[in-house]
TrEMBL record:
Stretches assigned to the UDP-glucose/GDP-mannose dehydrogenase C-terminal domain: 323-424
Coiled-coil intervals, chain numbering: none
Pathway(s): Nucleotide-sugar biosynthesis; UDP-alpha-D-glucuronate biosynthesis; UDP-alpha-D-glucuronate from UDP-alpha-D-glucose: step 1/1
Classification via SMART domains: UDPG_MGDP_dh_C
First-tier enzyme category under EC: oxidoreductase
Protein name (Swiss-Prot/TrEMBL): UDP-glucose 6-dehydrogenase
SUPFAM superfamilies reported for this sequence: 6-phosphogluconate dehydrogenase C-terminal domain-like, NAD(P)-binding Rossmann-fold domains, UDP-glucose/GDP-mannose dehydrogenase C-terminal domain
Reactions that this protein is recorded to catalyse: UDP-alpha-D-glucose + 2 NAD(+) + H2O = UDP-alpha-D-glucuronate + 2 NADH + 3 H(+)
Length: 443
């Protein structure tokens, strides 16, 4: 027999929620997505994605056309419609502390619970401090007289691969407190389970922890290789060769071992900070003290990049014209939250350099975050008359640019490769002075 298809709602239509809503509709479910922001809801309902994500824009238009997906600002509508409600709202860093700000999650759960009348399951997907799900379950039970259950189903999608990661996840994690909740999640994910996606069924606390543990591990791996880059810089060794040699050991593996400017974005930095804050509350801060070092190593790469500009242009950066290539926290994204690229541009600006930023997709968001910097509309405009060029986000457009062509435009052929992504031989052959994090000045 075919599994029943529960009616789905998605609360929050940011990165995570919009992707979840579109993908669930694509998989054949009836979906209602809710957001408090009418501007976002209008855009999505008319087939416009309010952010850049490869492939999601076309899938949005396709799924809207099936009639299985609609958007609303009305919680009552969602509460009446859904059997399985996915909460996908943000958990940003609190202002003034490292802890996660749970006000949106709390509001989403209570807004729903207050309005649901029959049986339903509310599934948290947001990244939260361990213990949150149990607290919310208590609140929901009180508001609904025990008719509505809470489950946790963390999300592991990467920006830039959101659709691919949602339709073909490495694994699903179901944090549940009952067999009924597990069955509802199995029904909601039946199309993926049929394809053999592994599922780990766990308690609520474990499910919450899997997410922060995964992001902590990834951040640690990046900071590990960047710590080695610091040692390479002090000893004349080359971190790119070191990373390659390590990567052949398949116990270590090469993924997330790319040295450079380090991690940024809306997840890794705030998640490791919130994890430390929560561990402290739980009395186990010693267990995750290393995450403080992970954070510090990551931030030190930014000042080291500024040092490399000084090595090339001299100690005083006043009036030095710098082309900052990239603003997004990684390529194929327009997200500038906690972006190392934009932070380096800001640091150079504060030192008096005249900074021109160019990012193929993130210029508008970068401009909103740092209106004081200058923004160019193209790579050629950005590097024009530059004293130093910096590669800060490894967009294909930058990596594939010809050093010979770029050399004609700049004032001085000097480049800092903040992502270790450029062909050093080719740059040197074209007369460029090349510097990269973790690599000797001359080879
Ligand atoms: C990250 C996780 O990879 C996802 O699994 C998780 O679901 C997501 O956070 C989340 O919590 O929502 P994302 O923030 O989209 O995904 O970006 P990543 O692809 O993980 O990259 C993070 C940062 O690490 C980027 O700034 C990237 O440039 C940097 N990075 C990555 C490195 O510096 N070196 C590497 O080897 C890999």
């Amino acid at each position: 027999a075919r599994p029943p298809k529960p009616r789905i709602t998605v609360i929050g239509t940011g990165y995570l929620g919009a992707t979840q809503a579109v993908c669930m509709a694509h998989l054949g479910f009836e979906v209602v997505a809710v957001d408090v922001d009418p501007v976002k809801v209008d855009a999505l309902a008319s087939g416009r994605l309010p952010f850049f994500e490869p492939g999601l824009d076309t899938l949005l238009v396709e799924t809207l056309a099936t009639g299985r997906l609609r958007f609303t600002t009305d919680f009552a509508d969602a509460a009446a419609f859904g059997e399985v409600h996915f909460v996908c709202v943000g958990t940003p860093q609190s202002s003034g502390s490292d802890a996660a700000d749970l006000r949106y999650v709390d509001a989403a759960f209570s807004e729903l619970a207050r309005r649901i009348t029959g049986r339903a399951l509310i599934v948290g997907k947001s990244t939260v401090p361990v213990g949150t799900a149990e607290r919310l379950a208590g609140m929901v039970a009180e508001l609904t007289g025990g008719e509505v259950e809470v489950a946790w189903n963390p999300e592991f999608l990467r920006e830039g691969f959101a659709v691919e990661d949602t339709l073909h996840p490495d694994r699903l994690v179901f944090g549940v407190a009952s067999a009924e909740a597990e069955q509802s999640l199995r029904d909601a994910y039946a199309p993926l389970l049929e394809e053999g996606v592994p599922v780990v069924v766990a308690d609520l606390a474990t499910a919450e922890l899997v997410k922060v543990a995964a992001n902590s591990f990834l951040a640690t791996k990046i900071s590990f290789i960047n710590a080695m880059a610091e040692v390479c810089e002090a000893s004349g060794a080359d971190v790119s060769l070191l990373a390659r040699a390590l990567s052949y050991d398949d116990r270590i593996g090469g993924r997330f071992l790319k040295p450079g400017l380090g991690f940024g974005g809306g997840c890794l930095p705030k998640d490791i900070r919130a994890f430390r804050a929560r561990a402290e509350e739980l009395g186990v801060s010693a267990a995750v003290t290393f995450l403080h070092e992970v954070d510090q190593i990551n931030l030190r790469r930014r000042s080291r990049t500024v040092d490399l500009v000084r090595e090339l242009a001299g100690p005083d950066l006043h009036g030095v014209r710098v082309a900052a290539l990239g603003a997004a926290f990684k390529p194929d994204s327009d997200d500038v939250r906690d972006a190392p690229a934009l932070d380096v541009a800001r640091l150079l600006y504060l030192e008096g350099a005249s900074v021109v930023v160019y990012d193929p997709k993130a210029n508008a968001n970068a401009h909103r975050a740092y209106p004081d910097l200058d923004y160019a509309d193209s790579l050629a405009e950005a590097v024009n008359e530059a004293d130093v060029v910096l590669l800060l986000t490894e967009w294909a457009e930058f990596v594939s640019a010809a050093p010979e062509d770029m050399g004609v435009l700049v004032a001085h052929r000097r480049i800092v490769d903040g992502r270790g992504a450029l062909d050093v031989e080719r740059y040197r052959a074209a007369g460029w002075e090349y510097r990269a994090l973790g690599r000797p000045a001359e080879v």
